[in-house]
Design brief:
Order of helices and strands of chain A: HEEEHEEEHHHEHEHEEHHEEEEEEEEEE
Helix content of chain B: over 70%
Structural class of chain B: mainly alpha
GO cellular component, one term (chain C): periplasmic space
Strand order of the largest sheet of chain A: 6-7-8-3-9-10
Radius of gyration of chain A: 24 Å
Strand content of chain B: under 5%
Number of helices of chain A: 9
CATH superfamily of the largest domain in chain B: MetI-like
Pfam family, one (chain C): SBP_bac_8
Largest sheet of chain B: none
Distance between the termini of chain A: 25 Å
CATH topology of the largest domain in chain B: MetI-like fold
Strand content of chain A: 25-35%
Organism (chain C): Leptolyngbya sp. NK1-12
Keywords (chain C): Periplasm, Signal, Transport
Distance between the termini of chain B: 40 Å
Number of domains of chain B: 2
Shape of chain B: globular
Largest interface: B-C, 60 and 59 residues
CATH architecture of the largest domain in chain B: Orthogonal Bundle
Chains: A alpha+beta (375), B mainly alpha (301), C alpha/beta (382)
Structural class of chain A: alpha+beta
Oligomer: heterotrimer
Subcellular location (chain C): Periplasm
Radius of gyration of chain B: 26 Å
Number of helices of chain B: 14
Shape of chain A: elongated
Largest sheet of chain A: 6 strands, mixed
Helix content of chain A: 25-40%
Number of strands of chain A: 20
């Protein structure tokens, strides 16, 4: 149910026109395949993130969109136009580089004006648009400074202004906030989000920071080893990961290897080698049959800890409290089940007395909260 | 407040009392070898030349006259002024030629050539430096003379012969050949450090490779260009083997003039010293300007 | 512009002079001798440090400071076989460079030096040379009449002439429009020569030849005459390709130069390779130069130096020098040992009539050399 709702929202927000399309794109460097046949469709006005661990091919993908790398196979299209043999300087995209790549021999103002000057904009237009861009990133007061005289966050803003001032079809952001400290990063995330909403330009961002991707993006592509594992909205990616990699990479989760023992129209019964039986509600139409190997994923915050009886139909297990970590807003528990499996549980801090270590506890979760992923 | 200031105020004293004689000697031990070297071979001779330049008409083996500025006033005679101008003409021309020839080479080695070949390419470029400058100049005579190698080659391609020997073009060629390796080395170092991401950023913002070159590569390597240019300029200003052998009948340069004053028939060391001091001053000013302004234009993000 | 009178120095000037001399000896000696070596094209072996050699003067070594090529391994070997003395040779490429080295103390190691005639005169005046003890010399009676009592060193009191030569013109007779007898040809054909004449890179030789052509002395001290020579040379300027003492040979042999002013020795060596070329001593007269052997007062081993002079006075050794270098000898006995080919070579041994028109270059007062130098700078700048 929730899935359909989110999809409808996507369509409503971004329209159906495509800004960037990747069709079966491959990239091989010196015999090593960095990108293995990617298909991507990025809608107009979308904030799209490519998320993955380092070395997964996400930056290479971005560089192929920008034109710094030519695909070994496949095709990149921007607004329906093939970008084959189109050099970077002819593509309607602008990039915010991870290192900012500001021109050290130019002032902030000249950095931002660089692209417009190349387009031979009139003096008055130059003044207005550079002024606007600097205002947009709140750098109008530092226009006469040189990049070396700016802090990291300020440089980031200049890099943004420099990319935005040309009014590109697509703005590419390569780990744009990677070099900033945590507090600044949070601030800039907010600003990026606002900028995107105000301008309505398509943003394509590469990041390894799942939190950043989840909080900013309309949609996310999770990449691993040169392939896309899953594309979806943040909640889809988080709530309904389609592969064990995605489940594991996005957020924290508990994974149980197991086999389907019984299959019902709307649910499954999975048994782990340790003898744990887990009930799983089916979300898609379930091509899982008894005997299939699966991985069951349950998020720690979806698990309840109690000392009393649990509601029926819940997955309900006895265990021993092995570790407690007090995190302020919530508490992390590690519970060892009778089967020997260790389960991580997050509970919001409701100012209760914490149970002491090595005491028996019961944990339970709803069959609807866990998912079974075929292996 | 007073509690916090007292210990910090006492700190220097403590530090001072902790000094050992060895620590006092250390800087001298470290600086002495280079210092004595500089003092003996740079400062002292320069001071000597300065003093000689202030004794009009000083000649070795003759009694010295009183101090005066006569040697310096002599420089302002039109004939010597012309010599200075010619030296500058040769030096500036060779510097520009070196830059023109050296930049593409350095650019190619630093940016286009395969990484593993770079050192080999550089070394092969420096090889000519290992031969005597005199030998190189004689070789150029053979190449540039009207019936020489150059014109034979031009003839093969049906191009008109060039009468460059004993004229300024031969001086530029000879000097550029001598000093090109320095230029290439310095430009290479500068280009190699160039942040390629800046070129990508420029391309990303719509700059063609040519525009990127002029708007990014050149300004970013400006310190290297300035340093290389200065080095070649200084070296060609001091060179007289090349103008002498290749420049023809009208190739008197400041350095040759100085040589004539010290080792020629007149042996007027006083005048030679004043010319040397002017040369030293000009070079020092150029270096000072480079040190002061050279780095300002460089990028540091 | 008359130079300041160098004679009016005071006590303080004397003190300063002492400082200057001491410091010049210590520092510029090193610096300048290095310069000079670089200038000479580095064919000289490393400069020996004075301390190293003067502190251990050995009877069995002799350091010689001479022009390139004047000695060869065979000569040195013969000398060693005969006297047991090991001769070590270092070279200079100009009299001025040599004198500077000797004056600044960097030449203390040498017991034999080969200055040219006019430098001998200067060095005698400066008191740098040891008067020769004639009783220790053997074979001076073999010297030709002209060198028994030369103008630069009457009675050879301080020097023994070693070799001599002339300055003249070398050219390819087929490539000149009429017979070349002297400088007339050059001035008569300025347009035709159009940058195909090379002249020696020496102010005194170039001005001397011109002065001579104008009928004045090679060593004129008259400002009006020197100026006239300058004006004459200006007329010649369009014909002059370059001023080179060495390095013109290739261009002349290939025909890129039509005519070169050269020292006889260099010219005759080139003619050996390119026999089509011809050397003449201009009929207006030319310079006659002599390179001599002297013993500096600072010589660490004068005994060996006498041995060397005597060795070089031996007719065989002197004759071999002529054969090897195509240079003239002042030694009559050596002359008689030469092949008739060489004896009759007018370029090596010009007739008395030609020699009578030749002059040696003599040292001039500094204000005159300064005048020459200024005109020279002007000539090579315009």
């Amino acid at each position: 149910m929730s899935q359909t709702v989110i999809q409808n929202q996507d369509v409503a927000e971004t329209g159906t026109k495509l800004d960037v399309e990747l069709r079966k794109v491959f990239k091989v460097f010196n015999g090593e395949t960095a990108v293995r046949g990617i298909d991507l469709e990025i809608h107009q006005g979308e904030f799209f993130s490519i998320l993955g661990p380092s070395g997964c091919g996400k930056t290479t993908t971005l560089r192929m969109i920008a034109g710094f790398e030519e695909p070994t196979g496949g095709e990149v299209l921007i607004r329906g136009q093939s970008m084959a043999n189109v050099p970077p300087y002819k593509r309607p995209v602008n990039t915010v580089f991870q290192s900012y790549a500001l021109f050290g021999h130019m002032t902030v103002w000249d950095n931002v004006a660089f692209g417009l000057r190349l387009q031979k904009s009139s003096k008055s237009e130059l003044q207005t648009r550079v002024g606007e861009a600097l205002q947009l990133v709140k750098m109008e007061n530092l226009a006469r400074r040189y990049p070396a005289q700016l802090s990291g966050g300020q440089q980031q803003r200049v890099a943004l202004a420099r990319a935005l001032v040309n009014r590109p079809t697509v703005v590419l952001l390569d780990e744009p906030l990677g070099a900033l400290d945590l507090k600044l990063r949070k601030e800039m995330q907010m600003e990026l989000s606002n900028l995107h909403r105000d301008l309505g330009v398509t943003f394509v961002m590469v990041t390894h920071d799942q939190e950043e991707a989840l909080s900013l993006s309309d949609r996310i592509a999770v990449m691993n080893q040169g392939r896309i594992e899953q594309i979806g909205s943040p909640s889809q990616i988080y709530e309904y990961p389609q592969t064990p990699f995605v489940a594991d990479f996005i957020g924290d989760t508990n994974l149980f290897q197991g086999q389907v023992e019984a299959s019902y129209p709307s649910s499954l019964q999975v048994v782990t080698p340790n003898g744990l039986t887990i009930h799983v509600k089916l979300h898609d139409n379930g091509q899982l049959a008894p005997g299939d190997s699966v991985v069951v994923s349950i998020r720690p915050e979806k698990i309840h800890v109690s000392s009393g009886a649990a509601p029926e139909q819940m997955n309900y297990y006895d265990g021993t409290l092995k570790n407690v970590m007090y995190m302020g807003t919530h508490v992390h528990y590690v519970v060892e089940l009778k089967s020997g499996d260790k389960v991580t549980v997050f509970q919001t801090n409701r100012a209760m007395a914490l149970p002491s270590l090595n005491t028996p506890v019961q944990i339970y979760w709803s069959a609807a909260d866990c998912i079974a992923l075929s292996v | 407040m007073s509690l916090t200031t007292t210990p910090s105020g006492a700190e220097p004293t403590r530090a001072r009392s902790g000094w050992h004689p060895a620590k006092l000697i250390q800087p001298f031990v470290l600086l002495a070898p280079a210092g004595i070297w500089l003092l003996l071979l740079l400062v002292f001779p320069t001071l000597l030349i300065l003093e000689l330049s202030l004794i009009p008409g000083f000649r070795l083996g003759q009694p010295a006259g009183a101090y005066g500025l006569g040697n310096y006033l002599e420089i302002f005679q039109p004939v010597y002024f012309q010599v200075v101008l010619r030296s500058l003409f040769f030096a500036v021309g060779s510097t520009l030629l070196c830059l023109l020839l050296g930049f593409p080479v350095a650019y190619w080695i630093a940016i286009k050539a395969p990484r593993r070949w770079r050192n080999l390419l550089l070394v092969s470029f420096i090889l000519p430096l290992w031969t005597s400058s005199l030998l190189r100049a004689y070789a150029w005579i053979t190449i540039l003379r009207p019936s020489g190698l150059l014109n034979s080659l031009l003839g093969v391609f049906g191009l008109p012969g060039q009468d460059w020997l004993n004229r300024s073009p031969a001086v530029f060629i000879g000097m550029a050949y001598s000093f090109l390796p320095y230029m290439v080395l310095i430009l290479y170092a500068s280009l190699e450090r160039l942040d390629r991401r800046l070129l990508e950023a420029a391309a990303d913002l719509g700059a063609t490779p040519q525009q990127s070159f002029w708007k990014i590569t050149v300004p970013q390597t400006l310190p290297g260009i300035a340093a290389g240019g200065l080095l070649v300029f200084i070296a060609s200003l001091g060179d007289f083997v090349v103008p002498e052998l290749l420049g023809g009948a009208s190739s008197m340069t400041v350095s040759r003039l100085i040589y004539n004053q010290f080792l020629g028939a007149t042996r007027n060391w006083g005048f030679g010293s004043s010319l040397s001091m002017i040369l030293i001053l000009a070079v020092s000013i150029a270096i000072a300007l480079l040190l002061k302004y050279g780095d300002r234009s460089s990028a540091q993000p | 512009m008359p130079p300041t009178n160098p004679q009016n120095f005071s006590v303080s000037a004397t003190t300063r002079r002492r400082f200057l001399q001491a410091s010049a000896a210590a520092v510029s000696g090193i610096v300048l001798s290095n310069c000079a070596r670089n200038l000479s094209g580095s064919n000289a072996p490393g400069t020996a440090s004075p301390e190293q050699t003067s502190s251990s003067p050995s009877d069995s070594t002799l350091r010689i400071f001479t022009w390139a090529n004047y000695t060869d391994d065979e000569l040195l070997k013969n000398f060693k076989d005969k006297t047991g003395i090991q001769a070590i040779v270092e070279t200079f490429d100009s009299n001025e460079a040599m004198l500077t080295k000797m004056q600044t103390g960097a030449g203390k190691a040498y017991s034999i030096v080969f200055p040219s005639d006019y430098k001998v005169e200067e060095m005698i005046k400066m008191g740098m040379l040891l008067p020769l003890d004639k009783s220790r010399l053997k074979g001076t009676e073999n010297l030709m009449q002209n060198w028994q009592n030369p103008g630069y060193d009457p009675d050879n009191t301080h020097s023994i002439p070693a070799v001599w030569g002339t300055t003249g013109l070398i050219f390819d007779p087929e490539k000149v429009s009429s017979e070349v007898k002297g400088w007339d040809y050059v001035w008569d054909n300025v347009d035709q020569l159009n940058r195909r004449l090379s002249m020696i890179n020496d102010v005194r030789e170039v001005f001397g030849a011109t002065l001579r052509y104008l009928g004045y002395s090679y060593n004129s001290t008259k400002a009006s005459e020197i100026e006239a020579a300058y004006e004459k040379l200006l007329e010649l300027k369009p014909a002059i390709a370059t001023f080179l003492t060495n390095g013109w040979e290739d261009q002349l042999a290939s025909g890129d130069l039509a005519l070169s002013m050269a020292y006889s020795q260099d010219a005759l060596n080139l003619i050996q390779e390119s026999p089509n070329l011809k050397y003449i001593v201009p009929e207006s007269g030319s310079s006659l130069w002599t390179d001599t052997m002297v013993i500096p007062k600072t010589a660490p081993n004068p005994d060996a130096a006498y041995e060397w002079i005597n060795f070089m006075l031996e007719p065989e050794n002197s004759a071999r020098l002529v054969e090897r270098l195509k240079i003239s000898t002042p030694n009559q006995a050596a002359y008689e040992k030469l092949s008739s080919d060489l004896q009759q070579n007018e370029n090596l041994f010009p007739s008395k009539a030609v020699l009578a028109k030749c002059e040696g270059i003599v040292p001039l007062p500094s204000e005159v050399t300064e005048l020459y130098d200024r005109y020279w700078t002007q000539l090579t700048s315009t």
